[in-house]
Amino acid sequence: MAVKPSEEESTITDINVTPLVDVCLVLVIIFMVTANFVMQAGIRVSQSTAGAATGKVSKSENVNVILTKEGKIIINGKEIDRKNLAIELQKAIAASKDKVVTLVADKENRCFEVVDILDIAKQNGAEKLSILKKIQTD
Fold it and tell me: What percentage of residues in the chain have a pLDDT greater than 90?
């Protein structure tokens, strides 16, 4: 004798979305937590327009750093030793009004040297950084 199931005892054919929602929420939480670790700090560089060196800030209020192709570093007209770079930059930035550091480099300089000087300047209080290309006078 076969028993016929009633309407209340029939099989459930609906999709259970609760486990799907649980998994999605866990993934969202994992992405939110790990997103802070993925972000890398860096130096933002924006392209300048012609005549960017002549701005509102006078030249005496800037910190001017020159990196020669021989590797010598000159801050505001004074040649310094590389091991004293951080100390001299800190003094010069503290004395400047707008805390703007302008770096002039030759095209023969390595990218590492330029980025190293910009990084040291930023760590010692520079609020704005600018890079200028040395004009070749042949």
Answer: 9
Torsion on CA atoms 132, 133, 137, 138, rounded to nearest 10: 170
Query: For 46-90, how does the pLDDT look when each residue is reduced to its tens digit (9 = 90+)?
Result: 665 655 555 544 555 788 888 888 888 888 888 988 888 888 888
CB crowding 104-138: b at 16 or more within 10 Å, else e: bbeeebeeeebeebbebbbebebeebbbeeeeeee
- pTM beyond 0.70: the answer is no
132 CA to centre of own chain: 18
Beta-bridge partner residues of 93: none
DSSP state letter for 98: S
Q: Over the stretch 5-48, which tens digit does the pLDDT of each residue have?
A: 566 677 777 888 899 999 999 999 999 888 877 766 666 666 65
What is the fold, at CATH topology level, of the domain defined by 59-133?
A: Nucleotidyltransferase; domain 5 (3.30.420)
